[in-house]
Amino acid sequence: MSNLIIWTLDWVPEGPRGFVRDLRLRWACEEAGLAYQVQTVPFADRESNHLTQQPFGQVPFLTDGELQLFESGAGLLYLARKSDRLMPDDPVSAAHTLQWVISALNSIEMVTVPWWFLSLSGNQDNGLGKWTEKRLQQLESVLEGRDWLVANRFTVADLLMADVLRIPEVRALSNRPASEAYVQRITERAAFRKAYADQLAHFEAADRCWS
Amino acid sequence: MSNLIIWTLDWVPEGPRGFVRDLRLRWACEEAGLAYQVQTVPFADRESNHLTQQPFGQVPFLTDGELQLFESGAGLLYLARKSDRLMPDDPVSAAHTLQWVISALNSIEMVTVPWWFLSLSGNQDNGLGKWTEKRLQQLESVLEGRDWLVANRFTVADLLMADVLRIPEVRALSNRPASEAYVQRITERAAFRKAYADQLAHFEAADRCWS
Q: Which chain B residues touch A109 with a CB distance below 8 Å?
């Protein structure tokens, strides 16, 4: 029996369902064939009820026996060490997997997430619009030349990059056919479909308890 | 002789000096006692002249023999594997170092850098101001309780977090005494002072060549 536990919220409104980041960790475990459980912290008072596990009041976090770990990006790299289905063993490919994971977090998401946050108020052409388009276009140029980011195969870097790119507002921003094909191909994987369905089912079950 | 090469720009204007991210890698090498060289790509046409090494047209990137690696965060984690002065050997502390490195990149910098970018136009109270203050205050609560992020000692997570927090506009945003003491303590380290002085000297030497 596995000691891996993915912690998420017990319930969220409909909007974020399918996009809560516990999905990243579920998906990685599914790809790697790692057994895991899902446990929850309450949605009510979520910004203060689990600060000892996650100092920014977010989910997910991971426990593996005694180890407690927050940041989905860190969780992915931690899980990747457990399975070469997520990260190749050879040192160069492992370093490049790390590189593209960080790139998804700090070159793409660092621009797309604040842009998306500002566009929630109705203005996609906000102060971050041009920067966002530029970064996405630079990534498009990379994806025009290859199917996968690392070693000509799926890695956890593709998992994370596709998860960053699949946000509907990001996906709809400008015409980037290579990126769109990349997102489609990766989100058709059985492990993604299962993780996605499991997250939806988790929150739907909570609806029934609350109703 | 080391094969480690840190690549940066041959020149930058005065504004970014002391903040170009090659400093992160210089600093890590100085902390770890790793020999390295610095080489350059031209500032002119920087957005397109080294796309094969860095697809977003940025610096730094790192070479180590045949390996090429971009993203300063990835470079730091790569270098951390070479020295326990950057990351403790025990698996729990190593995982927590990874966690806080990712946190600096994806929970703090993902908010502070776009906020800073928007405030360049003169408006610190932009759409990201409240989010930035909230995250920095959450981090302040963490730093009120400890001197270091991991294992009660300096790690590469402190190097990166202090580098993220030492941006003058970030440092000046609200009163956070624990964070300020943390930045001061860490940027007084000999390895930071040397890396900082070396970066300034590198760009000043270029001034003389160009004048």
A: 106, 110
Nearest residue to A105 (alpha-carbon basis) of B157, B21, B114, B102 = B102
CATH superfamily to which A4-84+191-210 belongs: Glutaredoxin (3.40.30.10)
- Nearest CB neighbour to A98, from listed B74, B128, B131: B74
Query: For A127, which residue in chain B has the nearest alpha carbon?
Result: B118
Which of A77, A99, A117 has the CB atom closest to B71's CB atom? A99
| Cα–Cα separations (whole angstroms), residue A151 to A33, A62, A144 | 21, 28, 16
What ipTM is given for this predicted complex?
0.97
Q: Is residue A98 less than 8 Å (CB to CB) from chain B?
A: yes
Q: Report helix, strand or coil for B5.
A: strand
* pLDDT tens profile B59-93: 999 999 999 999 999 999 999 999 999 999 999 99
State pLDDT tens for residues B139-153.
999 999 899 999 999
Domain with CATH 3.40.30.10 in chain B: 4-84+191-210
